[in-house]
Design goal:
2 domains; 32% strand; 317 residues; alpha+beta
Length: 317
């Protein structure tokens, strides 16, 4: 019988069985740790960490294990940003080459994600990752974002046809009006962002729809919970387009609870650079994530040139 493979990354060792991912690591205190996560709760963040190229800053798979993007290298940590484990020396971290971490994470996905489980889907849309080794799901884990080669609505442009997600069935898409000077009609097109999002076949996976210098608009559809706790290395904005998302906000370095935020359509919220956030969406909803992709941003915040606290960035009288 075929069994799940075991993986190594620095001194971290990863195994999976029917129910759990097991993460083994040495600790400062000298006592080795074995950390367990439910297998689906491990595979969902693993998939996103790979798809997002380790994202901005910290991606916590749970309170104990995760990665920090240093843009070239990646810190892989266990226990380091958990208050009790850190204080008791029960932690380990290694800074590794980003390509090595990516290679091992991808191999892990290829071996551990079964054909009946899609880590990008909402729980209601996919089967379970539980159980013995079986065929994998390469189509789901190697899914690439659709990259535009033509301007929107331009002739010859081929848009893939995704169905409206059941979570948005019946939603009305009201298109705007265009009044174009005769002869220039072919240069313009109307897009309905709600319709675009309603056709998204993934959850908690922002797509970049506009880029203006470092300003990235990354809308996404959300259902169930964000599989990671994101500790950003810069300020990040959320604009709730539809539905409701509750956010749990904790200190990035200790995991201690700081705040709850409930966002309803039209609500705007800015997340400081020293917290981690995890969103909970009881029904499929639409969120616009606004990121600043300035590669110097972490350094600007560290040096104090730019505040990591949005309160100090905007003055609202
Ligand atoms: C975030 O960490 O800010 C984030 C990630 C994925 C999403 C939404 C928000 O889909
Ligand atoms: Fe975030």
């Amino acid at each position: 019988m075929e069994i799940y493979r075991e993986f190594h990354l620095g001194q971290f060792r990863f195994t999976r069985d029917d129910y759990f991912a097991h993460i083994f690591f040495p600790t400062q205190a000298g006592r080795p740790m074995e950390h367990k996560m439910d297998i689906d709760a491990f595979l969902r963040p693993l998939q996103r960490d790979v798809a997002w190229g380790f994202f901005y800053g910290m991606v916590k798979f749970d309170d104990i294990f995760g990665t920090i993007n240093h843009y070239g290298t990646v810190e892989v940590f266990g226990g380091k940003y958990h208050k009790a484990l850190r204080e008791n020396g029960l932690w380990h971290a290694e800074e590794l080459d980003r390509d090595e971490v990516e290679r091992v994470f991808v191999e892990m996905l290829e071996d551990w994600v079964p054909a009946d489980f899609d880590p990008f889907a909402a729980p209601r849309e996919t089967g379970s990752a539980i159980g013995p080794k079986r065929q994998g799901n390469p189509a789901a884990i190697h899914r690439k974002r659709v990259v535009t080669t033509r301007m929107i609505k331009q002739e010859e442009r081929q848009d893939p046809d995704y169905p409206i997600n059941a979570g948005f069935a019946g939603m009305q898409f009201i298109y705007g009006e265009m009044h174009i000077k005769p002869g220039h009609e072919h240069k313009f097109g109307l897009v309905n962002l709600y319709e675009y999002l309603a056709r998204s076949d993934v959850t908690w996976n922002p797509s970049i729809v506009s880029v203006v210098e470092h300003s990235l608009f990354c809308p996404t559809t959300e259902e169930h919970k964000l599989p990671v706790k994101h500790g950003n290395d810069r300020v990040e904005w959320f604009i709730q387009l539809n539905g409701q998302i509750d956010w749990e906000i904790c200190d990035q370095r200790t995991g201690e609870l700081r705040a709850f935020v409930r966002m309803r359509p039209g609500d705007v919220c800015a997340m400081p650079a020293d917290i981690q956030h995890q969103g909970f969406a009881p029904e499929r909803s639409m969120l616009l994530v606004w990121e600043n992709a300035d590669p110097d941003m972490p350094q600007k915040i560290r040096s104090g040139a730019i505040p990591g606290d949005p309160d100090k960035m905007v003055t609202m009288k």
